[in-house]
Amino acid sequence: MERPARLCGLWALLLCAVGRGGGAAPTETQPPVTNLTVSVENLCTVIWTWNPPEGASPNCSLWYFSHFGDKQDKKIAPETHRSKEVPLNERICLQVGSQCSTNESEKPSILVEKCISPPEGDPESAVTELQCVWHNLSYMKCSWLPGRNASPDTNYTLYYWHSNLENIHQCEKIYTDNQYFGCSFDLTKVKDSSFEKNSVQIMVKDNAGKIRPSFKIVPLTSRVKPDPPHIKKLFFHNGNLYVQWEDPQNFISRCLSYEVEVSNSQTETLVFNVKDEAKCQNPEFERNMENTSCFMVPGVLPDTLNAVRIRVKTNEFCYEDDKLWSNWSQEMTIGKKRNSTLYITMLLIVPVIVAGAIIVLLIYLKRLKIIIFPPIPDPGKIFKEMFGDQNDDTLHWKKYDIYEKQIKEETDSVVLIENLKKASQ
């Protein structure tokens, strides 16, 4: 029994050896690729090409492992070239190696690196805040600020390219807006092709070579700004406000989200987000209206003046960027308008009436005080006037005036009391 056990052990070792060598040849490191070169097509398309390694094993089916300098975008493919759209504002490098399988764990040959440097020039002279917006899928508008070290008399030129163009085009419509420069160009042909495969390559420079060129890649699934909607009809039905509007051209309704704002004459503002396709089943709306949407606004009072406006943006179902709102639509109003003339008249009359009532009340209270608390003559003042340093004529008239004043006050008090008694009867 001991000999067969040894035979089984030897047979197991033999099977292991066959298993290790029978499936594939032992892994061996291949020579590096040769003649790695880099070039730029269009504005921002960088292309690397290389030749197969010299002295590679004839039993090896060559594959090429490549990645960029930061070890991103790793790729294993049989092609001897690789391309990438990248803005050439910074240095970018590609490393390439050869191997005999698609297994990432396999150690490739020595990696060969090739880099492309940014254009020459002072980095502080390049434009800053270069931004581009695709307006209503019809035209693209780019804007930028001059570089810190750029001359004030710099003549900027914008170049653009996308896959539907054979050559690089120059933007002709340069404009200024306060501190910003900008340019707009037609971009209607791209919408007929698939979005995810397209982007626009942008370069801004001056033809005199005084500034460093600046580059930007604009994906066509981002930075899309629709035109504002057009409100067609407003009406009340069963206590609700119905709003119908015309969608922006060139868009599919499911790719848009809306915001409806209703402001009334009582300074109250209601805002509603409409994300799904907005449709209203109501006979008041025009039938067979293509490219139109509808929304029912609850809780709006018909006895006040209501102002409605709408704005729109792209949503995440079709676009990457869903934060760029259109401008507000033209405002439309519905409801009863407050009589402004009557309102202003009341504002003027009410304060006058209140002031008049206060004055009458004060006068009445003063008269009532005199009746209840009649004035008491001051003897000291009388004696002072009688015996003061005055001549006889003056003293005589002073006494007469004092006497007349007392008689008048008493008479007024009596007359007022009689009038009040008559009024009470």
Automatic annotation (TrEMBL):
It is a single-pass type I membrane protein. Pfam families: Il13Ra_Ig (PF18001), IL6Ra-bind (PF09240). The keyword Glycoprotein applies. The chain crosses the membrane at residues 342-365. Coiled coil: none annotated. It comes from the Eukaryota. It is found in: Membrane. Its main location: membrane. GO terms for molecular function: cytokine receptor activity. Residues 1-24 form the signal peptide. Residues 225-337 form the Fibronectin type-III domain. Keywords: Disulfide bond, Glycoprotein, Membrane, Receptor, Repeat, Signal, Transmembrane, Transmembrane helix. InterPro entries: FN3_dom, FN3_sf, Ig-like_fold, Il13Ra_Ig, Short_hematopoietin_rcpt_2_CS, TypeI_recpt_CBD. PROSITE patterns: FN3 (PS50853), HEMATOPO_REC_S_F2 (PS01356). One of its GO terms (cellular component) is external side of plasma membrane. Interleukin-13 receptor is a complex of IL4R, IL13RA1, and possibly other components. Interacts with TRAF3IP1. Interacts with IL4. Binds with low affinity to interleukin-13 (IL13). Together with IL4RA can form a functional receptor for IL13. Also serves as an alternate accessory protein to the common cytokine receptor gamma chain for interleukin-4 (IL4) signaling, but cannot replace the function of IL2RG in allowing enhanced interleukin-2 (IL2) binding activity. Belongs to the type I cytokine receptor family. Type 5 subfamily. This is Interleukin-13 receptor subunit alpha-1. It comes from Callithrix jacchus (White-tufted-ear marmoset).
